[in-house]
Amino acid sequence: MDTLKNNLKSTFLILLSTFILTGCSDDDNPEVVIQEEVITTLTATLVPDGGGTSITFKSLDLDGKDGPNPPVFTVSGDLLADTTYNGSMEILNETESPAEDVTEEIKTLDEEHQFFFQATNSIATFTYVDFDGDSNPLGLEFTLTTSATPGSGTITITLRHEPNKSASGVSDGDITNAGGETDAQAIFPITVK
Amino acid sequence: MKYYILIVACCFINIVHNQNCDSRFYGEVHDFHDGSPIIAATIYIETLDKYTTTDIDGKFSIANLCDGKLTVSISHLGCETKRLDIQINGDSFYVINLEHHIEELNEVKVEGKTITKLTKTSQETLLKTDAIERFGAFSLGDALKQISGVSSINTGNSIVKPVINGLHSSRIIVMTNGVRLQDQEWGIEHAPNIDLNTVGSVNVIKGADALAYGGDAIGGVIVLQPFNVSLKDSLYGKTIISGHTNGRGFSLNSSLTKTYKKGWYLGAQATMKRFGDFETPDYNLTNTGLNSKGFSIKSGYKTFERGFNIYYSYLNNDIAILKSSHIGSIEDLVNAINSQQPLVVEDFSYTIEAPRQDVTHQIIKADFYKRFKKFGRLQVQYDFQNNQRFEYDIRVGDDRDKPAIDLTLKTHTIRTNLKVDSKSDRTYKFGLNVGYQNNFANPETGVRRLIPDYDKYDAGAFAISDFRLSEKTNLNFGLRYDFSRIDAKKFYLTSRWEERNYDADFSNIVIDDLGSQLLTNPVFDYHNISASAGIAYKINDNNSFIFNYGLSNRAPNPSELFSDGLHHSAARIELGDLRMKQETSNRISGTYKYNRNALSINLEAFYNHINDYIFIEPTGTELTIRGAFPVWSYNQTNASLLGLDVTANYKFNEHWLLNNKSSFIKGRDLTKKQALIDMPSFKTVNILGYSNKKWLQLNTELQSELVLRQNEFPDNNFDVYIPTIDSEVLLDISSPPPTYHLLHFQSDITLNLSKQTNLNIGLNITNLFNTSYREYLNRLRYFADDLGRNIMLQVKFNY
């Protein structure tokens, strides 16, 4: 019984010292989480076919998906009615300095990405210009054709990661069945005059 | 042990002695606790078939004995019979201590016979082994719903958290095998990591009256007791196998225990569960399977006077979460709620894919106890828990197989309890505990930490006294003090820091400025005082009352303080608040018990007033570069909870019985003058049972479960702009689902194979009519219906 007691005592002392030792944890600061595939900026540059004033749409959200500040959507000017614009997309991560060009990564992993373009009030229609290795649309390059009559509405540009490009309507630019993850979405108020 | 050494020593001396047959065996019999003499105890010499009884002073004497070894048994009404091998060598005097308090003998009693309530003056319910075994394949939360007033808050059907009188998570203490479970219990999608197969019985104490376990159990305490071990030479075990139609699952559990008369014991147990996708009456719930593995080992030495226990348990749960509940943005949520159909329905599969959670919980415990004559019992315990939690979300690209949440919570606790029970009419309990907890949030996830790294220090002390004023009246008073300090290191986005106005109030805790992020070091101290007072009064054999008052405080948990940002698996932005204060609960309760002949009624009423009640509710949306997400914020208000739990039993004859369990609760936000969110609705369960011992001990019951629609809820609905259709749509995130009624059937028979072995076969059908329904307190109710019919066949083999 005495040995039992001694054993218990020593077991307890060992446990106690483990407890105290682990209690004195180091005071190192935690590491910053490195987030991958951060997107802060989406810019669409529209050049009128046959020349004229270029228009840019820009969405900027410097505090990203976890931050309280909403993205700021800016449109440099009004679109002209019955005009075709040649569009190109630029995607940046501006939390890094210098800013990381995410456009290149999208180009490299083109089969995993697709842009979707939607306009309300039929103010514009879109066609894809660039395609991935499987001949499915990508959308870094596109054309935008404005309506023949003036009007106003919104244009929504969505970048989906890993959409199901073979789902019904997706290769025609319909986002409904696309699935995947939204990497970026921007809603621009547009006037066509 | 002293006797033993003496006997061994004497044996050697005895060999050389001549036989002397004029010796006298005499002595005194005392109560172990207070040393008082025990009158009329029987002293029986088994080897000679001679006996005597003790006199008014507890003394006895038997003359004309030969020297040598005798086996004596000493017995007394209300005492454990004690057997002793004694040595007679001339006139021999012995003092024999008998244990007189039958209810405190649980260390040495035979399995299944000493399960008792822990309190006399609280609203306490006890679930015994058979009531738990039926749920071996399910979770703790499912098993506890048998108790009136206990419901559950679910994330699907495998993540089930118990709710006691409307309160859950950090407001409930779960004690398992003497260890306070520390498994990140703050989140609604964090279910207690308990394998029910390790549990012998469950005591549920409503409210914070059981101060020995903690002062912050505003909702209540769930005490899971292990199977008792008996003090005899024995080897026994149990195997339970069950098969289920819904989820095409099985559960297997087996245990084996070896015990010795001297007090040593050794036991082991293992459980395996495997389920595939569950189904509703109309469709598969794609990605809802589960894979659970656990085992535990225990050993120790137990006698009445002293003993120790060591225990280790391991439990791993890999639980799939309904694929349709993964939403990419608020538009998906609007579509899910408005379509009332899951977005993804695929063929049945056992595969567990993201979203899923993979949680491993380990407990190591060692405790030692000793009883002191005429004083009481002292216990010292150390335990260590390691909780490793991974949450996997549907992610893309390089992050595909990375968890979105990777937390390791380590907790060390030392506690000591002293029970002074030398007086039969009063018991005092004192206790001290200190604890250290460390949480580590792995930055490798590539997702900003929802819960930061922190160290937490706890210390507590309590004193509880129980008085038996008379045969009819019991009183209880308790007082407890707890200190806790949380020392966290947390990164805040500068924009969030400013949006919350922390720059005005907490600028002193910023330790590093990284431009877009700030590293902060919040250190908060909390002092909590809790108290309880209760009286149990028995008017006569048929009627009794219990009244109780409990004061308790709960410090905010890490989730309530620090959450900030997108919670991927819930697709919502969750915001805590550094300004959170403690919650203070004042709870009064009254119980009336009626028991006469065939009828028994138990009415439990309570009123719980909680100042600074912390709750999470939807508060709007935040637009980000990835689209809009709903925001859920932790807020504080003054709340009141009022409820009545009814349990009634009526036996028509020895075969038929009728049972009713109903619970009603009303939760009010006193500041906003509206209903509280997430309150259980009115529920009534009626059971018609038939049992017949002659028919292979048949038990059957038909159960009707009626759950009314929760008509009292806060309206947190808001309009959401959906860009693709260019219009504002109402997001109905608040409306509870309609009333539902389910029928369940269960039956079992027992075959006695031999004296030691028996086989129990059970057939249970839940949701007999395959009714479609949704439950208000299931977080996945937005996305899919609840479970359809399940037929379970369970075979239980005791050996």
TrEMBL record, chain A:
Domain of life: Bacteria
The protein's name: Type 1 periplasmic binding fold superfamily protein
From TrEMBL, chain B:
Domain TonB-dependent receptor plug: 122-221
GO BP terms, alphabetized: siderophore transmembrane transport
Domain of life: Bacteria
Subcellular location: Cell outer membrane
Keywords annotated in UniProt: Cell outer membrane, Membrane, Receptor, Signal, TonB box, Transmembrane, Transmembrane beta strand, Transport
GO CC terms, sorted: cell outer membrane
InterPro entries (alphabetical): Beta-barrel_TonB, Beta-barrel_TonB_sf, CarboxyPept-like_regulatory, Plug_dom, Plug_dom_sf, TonB-dep_rcpt-like
Main location: membrane
Alphabetized Gene3D superfamilies for the sequence: Carboxypeptidase-like, regulatory domain, TonB-dependent receptor, beta-barrel domain, TonB-dependent receptor, plug domain
Record keyword Transcription present: no
Domain TonB-dependent receptor-like beta-barrel as annotated: residue spans: 301-768
Short name of any one Pfam family annotated for the protein: Plug
GO function term, MF aspect, one: siderophore uptake transmembrane transporter activity
Topology within the bilayer: Multi-pass membrane protein
Family: Belongs to the TonB-dependent receptor family.
Protein name: TonB-dependent receptor
